[in-house]
Amino acid sequence: MTDRVVPPGARRRRRPTKAGVVLSEELIVATALRLIEEHGAEALSVRRLGRALGADPSSLYRYFRHTDDLMLAVADELIGRSMRTWRPTGDWRADLRDLGLRMHAGALAHPRAAVLSAHRVTGRGHEIAAVEAILGVLRGAGFPDADAVRIYHAFVDQALAFGALDAAGAALPPAAREAETAVWRATYARLPAATHPHIAATAGHLITTMRRSSYPAALDLLLTAATTRLAEAREGKV
User: Which residues make Cβ contacts (< 8 Å) with residue 157, sequence separation at least 6?
Assistant: First the structure.
């Protein structure tokens, strides 16, 4: 796509395409998300999207100005899917843990899109709602505003970073994933205590643990640190 701009009022097409499909922003984003998972970033071309939608490629400019505009919409859709069924309960720590795990699971469900979008700021509806909700949880728990923003920042960046990291691993061919897992058994488990005492002493734990994502453990560490910070704030130590 180029930087061509179509006035907002002219962006909606009400007539079906030749394939009988009525285009919408939601349909284009869902199709782009599917194509990204099948073909990677190169899927985001008006020609390929047009073929997938059975539409004239130029009709996509009614909805998105260019490829990056569509990529931001895809990123925002991933946020929306993570937030869609999440409801805060009033237990700030449990609520953030639940949301973090949902964000991580969402990245693994769409690994290629997650890798492409984790670093983006969309400024769109789902992202704005997520920022508002997370800050609301933190401020409602009693965190001072500056702390609420710092913890929000760390929480979101941690979830996105681990999501992208683990999504990149999930996107590897199965044989490549198995080969990497096998390194812990074939290499690390065989290192002698005489030369590598710490690895040898913990080899069993390494083999078991390193095959799984460390995100849940990292999330718990972050939330524990935040809990300590909140206690200090209540005691007037910060």
Answer: none
Assess contact for 25 and 72: CB atoms under 8 A.
no
Q: CB neighbours (10 Å) of residue 99?
A: 23
Tracing tokens 């984003």 back to the chain, one arrives at 29
Domains observed in the chain: 8-65 (1.10.10.60), 86-234 (1.10.357.10)
pLDDT in tens, the chain (238 residues): 444 444 444 455 555 655 567 889 999 999 999 999 998 888 888 899 999 998 888 889 899 998 899 999 999 999 999 999 999 999 999 999 999 999 999 999 999 999 999 999 999 999 999 999 999 999 999 999 999 999 999 999 999 999 999 999 988 889 998 998 899 999 999 999 999 999 999 999 999 999 899 999 999 999 999 999 999 998 886 6
**Separation between Cα atoms, residue 154 and residue 132, nearest integer Å:** 15
pTM of the model: 0.85
Instruction: Let me know: does 33 contact 52? Beta carbons within 8 Å.
Output: no
Six token digits for residue 205: 């734990």
Q: Kindly state the helix (H) or strand (E) to which residue 60 belongs, with its residue range.
A: none
- Reading the block at residue 26, the tokens are 């939601």
CB 88 within 8 A of CB 137: yes
9: tokens are 């009022």
Q: Answer for the pair 151, 102: CB distance below 8 angstroms, yes or no.
A: no
Q: Is 207 exposed, middle or buried (0-12, 13-18, 19+ CB in 10 A)?
A: middle
